[in-house]
Automatic annotation (TrEMBL), chain A:
The chain crosses the membrane at residues 12-32, 64-86, 98-117, 152-174, 202-223, 280-303. GO terms for molecular function: L-isoleucine transmembrane transporter activity; L-leucine transmembrane transporter activity; L-phenylalanine transmembrane transporter activity; L-valine transmembrane transporter activity. Keywords: Amino-acid transport, Cell inner membrane, Cell membrane, Membrane, Transmembrane, Transmembrane helix, Transport. PANTHER family: BRANCHED-CHAIN AMINO ACID TRANSPORT SYSTEM PERMEASE PROTEIN LIVH, HIGH-AFFINITY BRANCHED-CHAIN AMINO ACID TRANSPORT SYSTEM PERMEASE PROTEIN LIVH. GO terms for biological process: D-alanine transmembrane transport; L-alanine transport; L-isoleucine import across plasma membrane. It comes from Pseudomyxococcus hansupus. The keyword Ribonucleoprotein does not apply. This is High-affinity branched-chain amino acid transport system permease protein LivH.
Automatic annotation (TrEMBL), chain B:
Keywords: Cell membrane, Membrane, Transmembrane, Transmembrane helix. This is Branched-chain amino acid transport system permease protein LivM. It holds the Pfam family BPD_transp_2. The keyword Lipid metabolism does not apply. PANTHER family: HIGH-AFFINITY BRANCHED-CHAIN AMINO ACID TRANSPORT PROTEIN BRAE, HIGH-AFFINITY BRANCHED-CHAIN AMINO ACID TRANSPORT SYSTEM PERMEASE. It comes from Pseudomyxococcus hansupus. The chain crosses the membrane at residues 21-38, 44-65, 72-90, 110-132, 228-251, 263-288.
Length: 306, 354
């Protein structure tokens, strides 16, 4: 029983992080109908930015509340800028082209980022994973029984941050002018432009927002995993993408639920079966969901018109 | 879509009847035998040529799904893995068996072909399984399912004792020869080209250009998509089997997402839908790192630079995809074949519509 509870907690903690990354996929897919394959790699770049900032701050500074805030702010702003650049130069010129071209471009950017960061030329970090500095010092927050169930403070903190960001995003999308513009662009960007919505600006802002979210989520992941490597973007990004699709891509609460479900499924596979099967189970689960509901759990399949 | 540039159907009359049957195969065999004889004392060159050949098979076969059918598949390395492992395991078990009425070398080749075929068929079965979800999924979703299948295959291989887990298989008899590889290259290209010209191929092009419209016109879209997947994965499995029989060791690390993407880059660079484009791109992209490496070592640049070629290759592939999509989204040749693009120094007869 205690073991089950512990797995549940670990699964939820992992799931919130997937959910946060998945939100970025869902937002971009919502406005552009583009699977932004490079999302995970933007996240990875953000984690390296946070890593560099944490080192620049020094040991005493980075474990203070201000230090943590600085690390997150630098990574998120940096990633927002990166997202803007990618959108402006790689996706915008292709907006009126077939969707496949943009997908291929996204894969290209993903490869350029993740393998580019593996080089050890100049400031690039090289392929080896590095230990992420202890930005949040791990403390056992809640211990039940004789260490049967342990809840760590970073689990609670990341759960809190994740929930705050999700609620904030839901508010942004459904209660603000910008959110309404986003939904309009998502519905039909040409008509939205005719109605006076600055489509380009809305899309760019959505990209920046999703990239900043990715950076935040990536830092939480790095704190949990205590390591950072150029390939983390490929794997975490892929998992988060799976989460987004399970929930129904383009659906904000769907991404969150998909992330939580995926986190739990993976945790239970690792806990009760074998950890080496984790990736296969994640994808198997995805295929199963898609076969039963082709639009994901909460998504709708739009009828295609000729 | 942009203005589609579908090649004019090669009406039956365009290819002489004599070339449509078994004749091309008969013509190719002596050429390959000669080729084999020429290559017999250059192990590195024949290794390199084999790699090029395997990549050509992979690119041309992926082109049937990605280029001709327009179903974006990004898990091709998975099918290659199936072929490589099944053929490898079979060859390992048949290593000691010999057909007594044949010379040893010939008997080896018989078993080699048999295990290739078994590997190819196993891969085709997997292709059938991957093709089935295309009943319900389109576009991006199908791409993700193929990616998932590729990863699942890799994880399954990694966890199966018979396949040597993460260590992979070693000791597979090295029976593959460049002639054998190029025989399969030849067959793959022949099949791909014959598909383009056939009514089957026209249906695939129709699905590529507009799936809904194709369905409305009475094309059995699901059936054709599944068949394209089956054919494509069969040849990917063959390529895997060939690969397993000339590299000393195969392990799950050879068949990751990265390998799939390499093949996608080849197809996209050559032009989605162009068989000759896929061949040219596969050859170019396989030889380029080797060329650069030997160039750097000849120039005497720091030893590290020559070793870095492999490191630099992947980011360059990524940027290549981006630049290509921005500048020339249809790839080098688009849907055209190389002889439509090159200057026409060979006078050609044109019949009917061009």
């Amino acid at each position: 029983m205690a073991q089950l509870l512990q797995h549940l907690i670990n699964g939820l903690a992992a799931g919130t992080i997937y959910a946060l990354v998945a939100l970025g996929y869902t937002m971009v897919y919502g406005v552009l109908k583009l699977i932004n394959f490079a999302h995970g790699d933007v996240m990875m770049v953000g984690v390296y930015m946070g890593y560099a900032t944490a080192f620049a701050l020094g040991r005493d500074m980075r474990s203070s509340l201000l230090g943590v805030a600085v690390v997150f702010a630098v990574a998120m702003l940096g990633c927002a800028l990166l997202g803007f650049i990618i959108e402006r130069f790689a996706y915008r010129p292709l907006r009126e082209k077939p969707r496949l071209t943009a997908l291929i471009t996204a894969i290209g950017i993903s490869f350029a980022l993740s393998y580019g960061f593996q080089l050890d030329i100049g400031f690039l970090p090289g392929a080896a994973p590095r230990a992420f500095p202890e930005v949040i010092e791990p403390v056992e927050w809640l211990v039940i029984g004789d260490r049967d169930v342990v809840v760590w403070n970073w689990q609670v903190i990341s759960f809190g941050i994740a929930v705050t960001l999700m609620v904030g995003l839901q508010f942004l999308v459904f209660r603000t002018r910008f959110g309404r513009a986003m939904r309009a662009v998502s519905w039909d960007h040409r008509v939205a432009a005719l109605m006076g919505i600055p489509t380009d600006r809305v899309i760019a802002l959505t990209f920046m927002l999703s990239s900043a979210l990715a950076a935040g989520a990536g830092l939480l992941y790095a704190i949990k995993d205590t390591s950072v490597s150029p390939l983390m973007g490929l794997y975490v990004g892929l998992k988060a993408f799976v989460a987004a699709v399970i929930g129904g891509i383009g659906h904000v609460p769907g991404a969150v639920i998909g992330g939580l479900v995926l986190g739990l499924v993976e945790e239970f596979v690792v806990g009760y079966a074998a950890s080496t099967w984790r990736d296969a189970v994640a994808f198997g689960f995805l295929i199963l969901v898609l076969l039963v509901k082709p639009g994901g759990l909460f998504g709708r399949v739009a009828a295609e018109k000729v | 879509m942009e203005t589609p540039a579908i090649p004019a159907p090669e009406a039956g009359s365009a290819v002489p009847a004599s070339l449509r049957g078994i004749l091309p195969v008969m013509l190719a065999l002596p050429v390959l035998a000669l080729f084999q004889w020429l290559m017999s004392d250059a192990p590195f060159a024949s290794y390199l040529l084999s790699v090029v050949g395997v990549n050509i098979i992979l690119a041309v076969s992926l082109n049937i799904v990605n280029g001709m059918t327009g179903q974006f598949s990004i898990g091709h390395a998975g099918f290659m893995a199936v072929g490589a492992y099944i053929a490898g395991v079979m060859s390992l078990n048949l290593k000691e068996v010999a057909l007594s009425f044949l010379p040893v070398a010939a008997s080896d080749q018989v078993f080699f072909v048999a295990s290739l075929l078994v590997g190819g068929l196993a891969a085709a079965l997997c292709g059938f399984l991957v093709g089935l979800p295309s009943l319900r999924l389109r576009g991006d979703y199908l791409a993700i399912v193929t990616l998932g299948f590729g990863e699942i295959i890799r994880v399954v291989v990694q966890n199966t004792d018979a396949f040597g887990r993460a260590l992979g298989l070693s000791g597979i008899p090295q029976t593959s020869t460049p002639a054998m590889v190029y025989f399969w290259v030849f067959l793959t290209v022949l099949v791909a080209r014959r598909i383009t010209g056939s009514s089957h191929g026209r249906s695939l092009w129709a699905i590529r250009e507009d799936e809904v419209a194709a369905e409305a016109m009475g094309v059995d879209t699901t059936g054709y998509k599944v068949r394209a997947f089956v054919i494509s994965s069969f040849f990917a499995g063959i390529a895997g089997g060939l690969f397993a029989h000339f590299v000393p060791i195969i392990n799950p690390g050879s068949f990751t997402f990265v390998k799939s993407m390499e093949i996608v880059v080849m197809v996209v660079l050559g032009g989605l839908g162009s068989t000759t484009g896929a061949i040219v791109a596969a050859t170019f992209l396989t030889l380029l790192p080797e060329g650069l490496r030997s160039l750097f070592s000849v120039l005497g640049a720091e030893g590290s630079l020559a070793q870095r070629v492999d490191q630099i290759r992947m980011p360059v592939y990524g940027l290549l995809l981006v630049v290509l999509m921005l500048a020339r989204p249809q790839g080098l040749f688009g849907t055209k074949e190389i002889w439509d693009v090159l200057p026409r120094w060979i006078p050609r007869k044109r019949k009917g519509l061009a």
